[in-house]
Amino acid sequence: MSAATGSPLPRPGEGAFGKERIRVLYEVQAAAGQIEAIAQAIAVEQSVELPLAAITDQRVLDHTVGQVHLIRPLGDASGAGDGDGIVHARVDHSPLGRRGLDRYEVAIDLALDTMGLAGSASRGLDIAQMMNMLFGNTSLHAHVQWVDVEWPECLRGTFAGPQFGLEGIRDLTGARGRALTCAALKPQGLPIEALAKLCHTFALAGIDIIKDDHGLSDQAYSPFAERVRACQGALDKVRDATGVRTVYAPSLTGSPRRLIEQARIAEDAGCAMVMMAPSLIGLPVFAEMVADRISVPVLAHPSMGGAARIAPPLLFGSLFRLLGADASIFVNHGGRFAYSRGQSLLIAEHARKPLLGTRAALPVPAGGMTVERVPEMLNDYGEDVMLLIGGSLLIAREDLLERTRAFVHSVHAHGRA
Amino acid sequence: MSAATGSPLPRPGEGAFGKERIRVLYEVQAAAGQIEAIAQAIAVEQSVELPLAAITDQRVLDHTVGQVHLIRPLGDASGAGDGDGIVHARVDHSPLGRRGLDRYEVAIDLALDTMGLAGSASRGLDIAQMMNMLFGNTSLHAHVQWVDVEWPECLRGTFAGPQFGLEGIRDLTGARGRALTCAALKPQGLPIEALAKLCHTFALAGIDIIKDDHGLSDQAYSPFAERVRACQGALDKVRDATGVRTVYAPSLTGSPRRLIEQARIAEDAGCAMVMMAPSLIGLPVFAEMVADRISVPVLAHPSMGGAARIAPPLLFGSLFRLLGADASIFVNHGGRFAYSRGQSLLIAEHARKPLLGTRAALPVPAGGMTVERVPEMLNDYGEDVMLLIGGSLLIAREDLLERTRAFVHSVHAHGRA
Question: Is the pLDDT of residue A274 over 70?
Fold first, then answer.
């Protein structure tokens, strides 16, 4: 009996979402002959977490226990191949790759009614519980990676997705028919006036969006409120003098209470965008902040994200977007981090592809990019992208304005030859 | 100038914590001849995130840039050795172990004033920013693991640590001079009455603490509020009838709003303990919930934690404890997960050792344990431990009471021969 409604509670497999399953894809490293047992163990771990012999309830056995849908060999674990496309988003710099073990794709069907969709309205999905059931305890197995999810159509409308998305950011910046440009305020340790001066220079050079270095938080040498007001103020002055409107995205970091306070300060200062790192603050917090507290586009930062043994296209592409990221920064190949070209392009694809009716998010490849690589990157990603260049601009020192103008020009001129 | 105080802001290296550094230990997999460059790159990534040539501010160069303190070879990456003890908490089932690469311990000193300790009082540390600066972007490097931190004494009083700790849980349960016992409510999918009946049986058998399966959240078939009231109610009845007081720890899961609501429901129902999974809800959220919303001991669950490339003793031992876990569930060796004995014992050590003046937390080894292993586990861990057995009790089915009594008896009798 439900105390709230007086009606009997549904059993597993009954009621809304009761019959629905969600297919989860893992990449598993296993010795030959063990993969069936391992796949079955994952199916149990991510559902009832109990030996089947300990389950006396037939409905739980029939409905709640996860089911292995598919096991497919992917070749030797030491191979560097990208698979044949059925593995949607394999981590190619992954912990998988030990001697004598084979790689397998394993697809497991889990009951959707375990995900905490109970009760209330359209945003009833509990993000923490979803992560818990899709990868929680299995994350403790070093030989398993969470690769992708086949999102069932019944979840359409469940995820808010981006509030503005790729097109909303074009509306905000006025950037049409070309890629967008982004620069970063760094290094941390600079006094506030120096950061505000960087804003001024970037704005004069025609940058679309300026983001905080993700290391800037609420330090004694540049407290959040004063930094945000000074940086936004510098941009407001450029706008008043020249008509150029450059967007500033301060980085919100901390516990929920700090995040709420920082979001208010940013809004009061007139910031037209904010940045958050979902894996740092917690994915459920990120989603709730977007839904409840943020009325401007949100730029997601990947900090702490790579620590997860979750395939980057799934995490930085699909998941961050489903939870509300309007733009997502990720590692481009050939920079400071060892991602492959295929991996980076797949992240962008996950950010932009049709996905449960949510808005497309703006992909932001980054991580040691240079002005010289602009044409190559735009050929790779197309124009629905924002290029973020940090250190390679600032290394110009006294020639920062000129160098930033070269970056902006290179992006604007691309494809107009 | 600080708008709030009118006094000039400190520069890096000035003011409270200005001169302090925090030493962070990583394990890095690298080809011979590359380790110096990689260590320097980590020091830069975790501080200014900018080529040094791009930094014009001498104070930032002198103070804010991270410094490589030590590089020490640990032997071939494919080796399975435990190191020689200087690596405090190496992950031994780690992604490190590729062919032709060597393993190194790298110690890097970071400026403490980057961690967001600014402004306010003793709990000024921003947990998200601390994680960001200690491992944020470096988490994107698959060949680097975050192994440990040498916590500087100046952080004493900064972390709240457990509110009750190991001794507080002994006070609560009355368990003295012996290890504690814990059982789990599972599988999910059971109706509420069946879960309440399990509580009744476990209590009659003399279990100290009953925890929710971490998969139980707010599902249609067992909504949080009704489940918690029913389970606590079952234990209240046993207490009234027999005087036996068994503690129930419901699992709180979700976004901050859901967590706050669930904490209130649990408190209203009279629950004397709660469980949360810090890596699932977000470490900063966990710390803030403990500080602001929870007035009973907190049991930490490792779900999603293993996904982090953070050494388990650091994450489940030190970090969860510093953020307020009174007890911490972790994987014991020889069960369903591939942890070594040394690794598991080291987690317990991190939970109990002197650490910045915080209370010791109660270690809870688990993950496929059996009644038969009780003597061995108690010999390994000593009596300051709580043994958690789940499936191995429930598999007794109609003999559950008897089997649970055997578990309780085995723990109580240990060492009294």
Answer: yes
Of B50, B94, B126, the CB nearest to A394: B50
The verdict on a CB contact (< 8 Å) between A338 and B282 is no
Give residue A247's region: left, alpha or beta (phi > 0; psi -120 to 50). Answer: beta
Identify the burial level of A245 via C-beta atoms within 10 angstroms of its C-beta, where 0-12 means exposed, 13-18 middle and 19 or more buried.
middle
- Residue A129 CA to residue A135 CA, distance in Å, equals 10
Rg (CA), chain B: 23
Using CA atoms, how far apart are residues B347 and A60, in angstroms rounded to an integer?
Answer: 34
Q: How far apart are CA A95 and CA A51, in angstroms?
A: 28
* pLDDT at residue number B95: 41
What is the enclosing helix (H) or strand (E) of B279?
helix B278-281
Q: What percent of chain B has pLDDT over 70?
A: 90
What tens digit of pLDDT does each residue of A352-407 get?
999 999 999 999 999 999 999 999 999 999 999 999 999 999 999 999 999 999 99
Name beta bridge partners: A365.
A330
For the segment B78-101, what is each residue's pLDDT rounded down to a tens digit?
433 333 322 333 333 344 445 578
DSSP letter for each residue of A185-211 = E--TT--HHHHHHHHHHHHHTT-SEEE
Structure tokens at B224: 């949080």
Mean pLDDT of A107-128: 76
Question: What is the 3-state secondary structure of A128-178?
Answer: HHHHHHHHHHHHHCCCEEEEEEECCHHHCCCCCCCCCHHHHHHHHHCCCCC
CB atoms inside a 10 Å sphere around CB B293: 16
Report how far apart the first and last C-alpha atoms of chain A are (Å, whole number).
70
- Cα separation, B108 vs A14, in Å, equals 55
∠ Cα A377 A383 A388 (to 5°): 55
A398, closest residue in chain B (CA to CA): B56
CB B278 within 8 A of CB B215: no
Of A4, A213, A395, nearest to B53 by CB-CB distance is: A395
Task: Report whether B312 contacts B62 (CB < 8 A).
Answer: no
Name every chain A residue with its beta carbon within 8 A of the beta carbon of B119.
218, 220, 223
Listed in sequence order, the residues at least 6 apart from B299 whose beta carbon sits closer than 8 Å to its beta carbon are B209, B211, B249, B273, B274, B275, B276, B325, B326, B327, B328, B329, B364
| This prediction's pTM | 0.91
**How far apart (Å, rounded) are the C-alpha atoms in residues A328 and A317?**
7
- Least confident span in A312-326, B99-113, B315-329: B99-113
pLDDT in tens, B202-240: 999 999 999 999 999 998 888 999 999 999 999 999 999
CA distance B186 to B289: 25
What pLDDT, on the 0 to 100 scale, is given for residue B117?
Answer: 73
Question: Which positions in chain A touch B93 (Cβ < 8 Å)?
Answer: 142
Helix, strand, coil % (nearest 5) of chain A?
Answer: 40, 20, 40
C-beta separation of A45 from A138 below 8 A: yes
Contact B9 A132 (CB under 8 A): no
The β-bridge relationship of strands B67-76 and B102-111 is: antiparallel
Residue type, A274: V
DSSP sequence for A66-78: -EEEEEEEEEETT
How large a percentage of chain A has pLDDT more than 70? 90
- Give the model's confidence band at B260: pLDDT under 50 very low, under 70 low, under 90 confident, else very high: very high
Q: What angle separates helix B400-413 from helix B192-205, to the nearest 10 degrees?
A: 40
CB contact under 8 A, B139 and A305: yes
